[in-house]
């Protein structure tokens, strides 16, 4: 079984070691999402547009994809920084972004959370320009498309539309079950259809939440040397 061991970055931000391109579930019914993964790989490799905007509903896998890009960039020897803007509200953006223009790849998650805040929008606008001038790469994610994002600074909206925009589609419940079972197998866990369906039905449909709860089950299964059964899942997750 695999235990969660995040990689520590500057600013106290960490990457989930499970968040890789190989772990991103894009079934045949989600061919578009497979194209998104390919586009992100090419961005990191410098074979495609350097500025990419991802958008999709909560739980569609945006955070996973941003962190997967960071992991992939690191395997290529690139310098990276991942910033979940939802958790950065206590920072002054102009100070937070100091030096980021020198990095090979900057990933800004949860752009929706700072939309409408003038200081943040101006800081991101300036960062965008600095990264472009330096030939670096920027990957951002939000719940809305650039046109729909409630920004005050129209110049920032214009910049965000300069690059490539991908919509990441949410998985169906059946696909979420398959994704959960694939992640379980990667951890060395046996998760049969009955137990997987029970988890999907009882927990929020957000894939990030499902994977977090699978991590809890993995740790409990290892500690108690138990298989994943419905009674055991009920006990561990207090369902």
Automatic annotation (TrEMBL):
<dbReference type="InterPro" id="IPR017788">
    <property type="entry name" value="Hda"/>
</dbReference>
<dbReference type="InterPro" id="IPR020591">
    <property type="entry name" value="Chromosome_initiator_DnaA-like"/>
</dbReference>
<protein>
    <submittedName>
        <fullName>DnaA family protein</fullName>
    </submittedName>
</protein>
<feature type="domain" description="Chromosomal replication initiator protein DnaA ATPAse">
    <location>
        <begin position="15"/>
        <end position="165"/>
    </location>
</feature>
<dbReference type="InterPro" id="IPR027417">
    <property type="entry name" value="P-loop_NTPase"/>
</dbReference>
<dbReference type="GO" id="GO:0006270">
    <property type="term" value="P:DNA replication initiation"/>
</dbReference>
<dbReference type="InterPro" id="IPR055199">
    <property type="entry name" value="Hda_lid"/>
</dbReference>
<dbReference type="GO" id="GO:0032297">
    <property type="term" value="P:negative regulation of DNA-templated DNA replication initiation"/>
</dbReference>
<dbReference type="InterPro" id="IPR013317">
    <property type="entry name" value="DnaA_dom"/>
</dbReference>
<dbReference type="Pfam" id="PF00308">
    <property type="entry name" value="Bac_DnaA"/>
</dbReference>
<dbReference type="Pfam" id="PF22688">
    <property type="entry name" value="Hda_lid"/>
</dbReference>
<keyword id="KW-0235">DNA replication</keyword>
<comment type="similarity">
    <text>Belongs to the DnaA family.</text>
</comment>
<feature type="domain" description="Hda lid">
    <location>
        <begin position="173"/>
        <end position="237"/>
    </location>
</feature>
